[in-house]
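Minutes, project check-in
Item: structure for the 155-residue chain
Input as provided by the requester:
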Amino acid sequence: RGYRVIGFDPVAGLCELYRHNTGGECFNVALSNSDDSDFYIGKWGTHIIRVSEKPDAHYEKVPAAHLDAFLLSPDIIKIDVEGMAAKVLHGGVETLKWAKVLVIELHSPEETNGVLFFLTGGHWKWQYITEDHVIAVKPDTKLPMDYERQWRVWS
């Protein structure tokens, strides 16, 4: 079966680059847990990895949107949103019902706590795959550590 990959990037230049290089869709929004706020993202070539809720001369205003607003039914979701992963998860509860696998990049202890609290409360199994990346799966799906355990049994 073919796969459809959709990107979300608040930086207009990166969204355009994604569209050009992949022919895929990219929505120029900051994913969050609501649609009723704006965010300020570092302008192209300046503070690209910073997200702020306050205006500044080095930032451009981008609209916020929640994942559920796009009515998607993905199998896999990769989240790398510079400290806002817990907000994205809370804004995508319906979308996450479709997903079998989540890969989430974590940027701070606060974000990590929020994400792991959400995953545990939502009955996701999870494990670290690097020191700042978590993979989460539905209870009936195996994690890499499940294969490691099985391998030890077979050895």
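Outcome recorded: The helical segments are 12-22, 85-90, 93-96, 109-121, 144-154.
No further action items on this chain.
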